[in-house]
Structure formats: C-alpha cells, structure tokens
Fold this protein.
Amino acid sequence: MKAKYSHCMNRLAGLVAMALVATPVLLEAQESRVMSPYERTVRENFWLEMSNPAGIRQDTTLSAAYAELYGKGAYNAFRTMSESANPWTAGAKAEALVHMKRFSLAGSFSFSQEWMKNCCGSMANVPGRYPVDVFEFTPGMKLRQTYGIAGSVSVDLAKCWRAGAVLDFRSSNCAKRKDIRYTDYSLDLEFSPGLVYHKGRLSFGFNYIFDKSGETVTAEQVGSAESSYYAFINKGLCFGRQEIWTGNGVHLNEAGVSGFPIRENSHGAGIQLQQDRLFFALEYRHASGLAGEKQSIWYRFPGDRIDLRAGDIISSGKWSHRIALGASWMRQSNNETVLDKVSENGVTTTVEYGSNLIFRRTVLDADLEYSLTDGLHTLDLTIGAEDERTSASQMFPYVVDQDILGWHADAGATAQMGIVTLHLGLGYHGGGFTENMRSTTEDSGVQTSLFRLEDWYRNDMEYRTADRISAALAARVMVYKGMYLQLDADALAAFGLKVMKGRSCRAGACLRIGYDF
Amino acid sequence: MKKTLLISFMVLCAAACNVAGPADPYADNLCMVGVTAVFPDGYEDAVHEGIAITAEDISLGSRYTLPSDGQGHAELMLPKGMYRFSVSDIQEDDIFNGTLDKVAVKAGGRYSIALVRSRKGALVVKEIYCGGCLKLPEQGNYQADKYVIVHNNSLDVQYLDSLCIGSVYPYNAVSTNPFLSQDPDTGLDVLPDFVPIGAAVLRIGGDGTTFPIQPGEDAVICINGAVDHTVNYNLSVNLNREDYFVVYSETDFNNTQYHPAPGDKIREDHHLIVVSKLSGANAYVLSINSPAFVIYKARGKSIEEYCLQSDMVTDIPGAQSAGRVFHLPFEWVLDAVEVFDGSASNNKKRFPSMLDSGYATLSESFLGHTLMRKVDEDLSRSMGFEYLSDTNNSSQDFYESEVQSLHE
C-alpha cells in the first residue's frame, strides 16, 4: 500500500518522490502501514494531497490527530552504493487536523535519528535530488537527524470564499565520523497561500507556491593515512572527476567558499477543480538552483515540474470506491560555469566567462490507484510507470543518452477485527534501461576521454532496474482507548542480478507505539 | 467516459513532453577559433602542414589536437572554457615551441602563437624528486629528502662550476602570479620577460674546471639534507654519497629538519654557495607538488656582481613580506622544468614557451613518486651513453615514476 500524505507533507512527498524517481531508491519495497483514523480522514480529501492549504476545509468535517514513536531496523543486502547495509532509525511523529466553526487547522511535527553503519558514497542528504553530487569512499558511521514542522490554516472569508496558508519546514543534519569526515546541513522551506471559491457542487482553487531548499557539505580530514583520500564529483550518469578531496575539481575545499553549498528556489502555482467528489488539480513549479557561493558559482541548474492529480470517490452502499490518477513531469538541466581567478593590484576576483550545458534529464511518472473500503476492510491496488531520460554532455564532442523505464504493481488488503487490524501487501517492480554514447562530430581532435565511476554506476543501475517482488505485513493492536501498538515487517527479493549476485534481498521491521486522539 | 478521455489526453500530452532534449547539446556553446603557429624571424620557411596544435581546457583537462594547414593555421571547435594553446614542432636540431596560457575562448577568436626556437641543451634536468614519501611504518609524511639530478646530455665534457639552481616564484603552479601583466590588445596574460627566481640564488663553487661531468653522467644536488634518510624512513633515499652536492648553509638555512649537517661523505666544496638569500625562510623553498625548477649560468660577469644590481633583485609585487626575486634573463637558462599539481585544476604556466612549452605532472605528494626525463633509446645507442629526450616540452620529455631513482 502506498503511503498517504497529509496536505502538510504533500510537498515533502513530492520532493521525496522526485528524489525517488531520480535515484536508485525508486523501486524500494513499500513500508507497511495500517492507516490510522487520521490518515483515513485525510484520504477522503484530495485537496490534502496537493499544496493549496485553503482546501483543508473541503470535504472533511472530522477532526483527527495522532502521535507515535517508532523504531525501525533493516537489513539491506540489495542496495545502492550509498546506502548502509544495516540502518537503524528511531523517531517521533504527530499530525493533527482540526475543524472549527469558521476555520480549520492542520499541523505536523516529526523527528527522526538514523544510524547508518559502514556508509560512504554520496554526501548529499537526498542523493540524486540535485544534478551534481560528491562521493567519498571511506565507509564509516553516518548519523542523520531530521526535524520537520508544518502548519496550515484555512479560513472562511465569506460565504463562498476560503483562504489558507501553509508553512512547511524541514531540516536535516548529517555527520560522518570517519575521514573523509563531513557534515551536511540541509534546509527545506515551503510557503503557499491559497484561495478556494466554492458554490454548490463546484469548487475552484488557486494557490501560489514558494519553495526554498539548500544544503552545505563541509568536509575535513583529521587523522593521517597511508595515502590521500579521494573524492568524486558526479556531474551526471556517474561521469565526472575523481581526485584528491582537497583538489579544485571536486570543490570540497575551495578557497573563499565554505564547503560545498548548493541551493534551489522554486516558484509555482496550482489550480484545483472539484465537482462533487471528482477532483482535478494541476501544479507547476519553476526552480532555479546553483552550487557555489559569492563569485564562485560552479553550476546552475534550472528546472520545471508539473504535477497532475485527479480522483473520484464513489459511494455504493457501505462500500466506497476511490480512484486516483497521479502524474508528474519534471525536467532539469545543469550548466557548468567557466571561472577564472584574476589578480589586479593584489586583489583577486573571480570572473565568469559563460557556461556549458553538461546535463539534462526529464522524468515522467504516472500512477493509477484504486481502493475499495467499507471502513473495516480495505483493498488497495496501484499500478504505475516511470520514464527517465538523461543526457550527459561533459566533454565535447561526447554525448551519453540514457533512458530508464520502470513499472510497478502493488496490492494491499487491510482487515479490522475487533482491536486487531491486519494488513498484507504484495508488490512487483520491474524496469530496464538503455544507454548510448555518441559523438556530435568526428573532427573535434579530442585526445581525452570521459571518466566514469564504473563499478558504482553498474551497481546503482542494477538497483534501479532489476525485477523484484516485495511483501509487507503489519498488525496493529489497540491496547487501551486510543493507544496502539503496531508491528510492520517487509521484505524484498530481486532476481536476475548480475552485479549484486548473492545480495538480492532487503528486509525490515518497525515497531510503533502511538495514540489516536 | 468523458472524464476518462480528458485525463488520458492530459497524460498523453505530458508523455509527449518527455522527449529527449536537443540532439546536439553543444550547439549553443561551441566557439570556432582560429589558431596560427607563427615561426620566429628567419625561420618563416619552417612552417609546414601537419604541425600539431593543441588546446587544453585548464579546469577540466580535456585536450584537443588538430594538425595545421600549410600556413600553420588550424580551426578548432571548442566549448567555452579557459584554454592553454600549445605548439611543439621539432625539425632536426631545431625545436620550435609556443604556448598561449589562460585564453577564454570566444566564437570567432583568432589567436597567434609565437614560436620560439631553441636547441637541445647540453646540461639538462634528469630528475626532480620533490614530493616526499610516507614515514611508514610510522604515521605521517616526510618531505625533507628532496633532490634534483642534472645530466650531461652532450658529447662534450661539461663543467658544473658556477652552475646555479633556481626555484621560480610563485613556488606553486596554482598560486596567483604577481608578475603577470595583461596584453592591452588581447587581454591575455603575459609572462614577464625574465624568470623570477625566489628563495635564494645558489651556485656550485669551483674555479671553472673543478667539477667536470662526462657525457652521460649525472650530478645529484640535494635540496634538503645530504644524509641517509633511509635510516629513519625506509621509503626515502640515501643522499650521503660522494660527489653529491647539497644546499647547506648554517647561517642562511638554519632549519636543521630540512638542512641538517651533511653526511660524512659530502665534501665541503660540494656545499652550494648562497649568493643571495631572497626570502626570510629558514629553509630553501622548493614546492612539494608543483615546482618550476631551472638551472642556469650567468654570462658576462659573475652572478655575485649581478645580484648587487638593483634592477636584478626586486621585491615581489603586492607581497613584500614574501621576499624578493632575482630577474633571471632567458638567455642564461640551460634547462627549465615546469611541474603541475595533478591533484588540482587551475595550474598555471610560469615558464614561457622558449624555456618549457609544456609541463610534467606530479599526481600526488608523499608517495615517493619522482619525475624522470625519458631516455631516447635510439640516440642513446648511437651515442654510446644515456641520451635523454629534450624537446623543451616537459609534457613530452618527462614521466612520473613511482620510485625515486636513488632508492635502493
């Protein structure tokens, strides 16, 4: 069963979804989850899956809230090169939706701490989110703390008008404690004001979306070693430059710049239409990103994203049918700037002489969901597909084009029997990719060739595209009044592996203690 | 039904957007530039078709080489970047080299590389060991064992008397060069018309015939201690040997870590003479990752007399605290070797083309690696002694060896 997100978390979901799409974590085994009354309430309102906060007063009239503590452990033999084989996570989460006479409030809070042993690879908080990334190669303990807080309000301004605003904040601190040791501080902030006009069976919404995100990786070497530590800057498709981590090419230790800063701002808008329970929404975001700071801007990456969501809920007696279609399209390009340090009268300035396009990608994904429920029993079915096309052009005249196609089908069933709720989920994911290197001209006289982190690339591509089946089991027991105890377990097995032979499985378990208010 | 069709249409529209980008991502960023190799006066007829003209992106390391036409001209299509253009052409005993450094290419740019003629040298630098080694089995790095080897690459006996060694300022290839000026017409950086020698002016003693070096023979000059470094660090070298020369002065270089008292086999007349100390450092400065090293002899009068001239020793612009430099004329230079730091981008040339049109690369310090001049096997056989490659282009003449030649 796909996880459902409240309106406060939908952007983060979009972010994670984009990262999932863009990184090898795409086809991961879904985390098993028994829906709480809060999540069932939120699920009734398609507005809460999009970014217009004014819509939280649409459809749902019930207030709901929950809070829980959880602890997760996993064994990941089948994983990307940047993942830990044995991660542990502990966290707390609370979400609430409150409807008052003239206004509604929604809020959430989350905290998690992850322990990742023998971790190396990408230094980024969400590998693949940005088109440029830096890798290091010394496995060590990595710790990540993530904090999230969000709040939104929707107010009835007049008989047919509602206004709302949402502020969503998430920060993450990551530290690796073994040379090359580093810290990564990331911040994500979204603000969106919106309006909804509703009359009779029709509703129309509009909202503006502003998103600001950034992270800074700061690396250092404390001890001494037999040989120098290397780092690799991945400029797309695992092509890039590998050198000693203090070298100018990887930008981790550049004079005048603090660490490796990267940030992205986006502006967008959304429109929503609703007739009865039929819902349609479209959102557009334009992003501008850059890596570097002050005069030393090494990369600029603009992007666009369109999200579409449509759904309907049809009640038939005690049964309710929920159909939803989600699709998103994004494109992103990366331009590497040409910089030179010029000294005049003892003063050194950095001059930019233009830029070269080195990377482009477009990602299209679509999901179709169907759910049937009578409140006690639920059946969920999901099918989806994704197409990612990437082109790397880091060294003239070479161009490398890649096309990744992925598909998945998931089914889940939940049954509540007294104080016990059981869930079973099954999934199948598959995919494939093609890659072609070409030369735009034969007369360039090029003498050098592209460098690729070949082993890492083959491992991560296999992770993204190998066929796999997954299973999930969850059991929730209502212990006392609203208090519950829940145990989730999931497992995944991949097959047809060539690079990760003998490392085909993933398994995890999560214990949750919570309270439904 | 209508809703289904509408939704399906929108998804198809989105799918249609997910197409590959432009077939040629370089189309908007390429610059067609013309590069012409210009032969020096008196050698205009030496131009011929097929001269290799090379453009190297200074930051990315990508390299493009195209042959010239009969006029020494080539058209290169290059993406935006900072480039180093170089030409190297050998015609019998004449070597024609030229370099244009730090060129920000623009579409339609026209660049001329003035070639400089040089001849193969008699005395050449055979080896530069500056990168240090590991202190294994202890932890840490060791860099107090640097040395240089000079080789007689001619059929005649040469004399090391009054031979000077020099470490060019700036000491590192990635450092800002305060001696650069800008061409008012092209905006390109222009190197000074002298070689700025930093640290100190050092020479070998002798009366003119005291220190002969036979054809094919080598002379080792210890930049740091002429001692047996392998006693403590077995990856290092033993520099306590007869006939080795050493940079040693108790008064000028009193850092005993880098300039300990020479070993018992080192003769006192093999201590280099400090003609002029140019910086306040208590040790002689030679970069561990990217030195520009030169050997030279003064002409006309003694190097001591030149060092007393105010126009020959001046302050470093914008960095008076770093010391002074000696203005070494190009004509005095016997051999020059430019070394770039392989772990860094944005290395910059410090020697003009006539001295060294390329560069050797030291990939990493503290690994015991050394830079060696290649042996010309054919000429070595015909001459009867080890004859080294000498094209005045360190890119072609040098390679990186994983072990010092003096390591046992």
Chain B touches chain A through 57 residues (CB under 8 Å). The CA atoms of residues 2 and 8 of chain B lie 10 Å apart. The two ends of chain B are 86 Å apart (CA to CA). The longest strand of chain B covers residues 94-104.
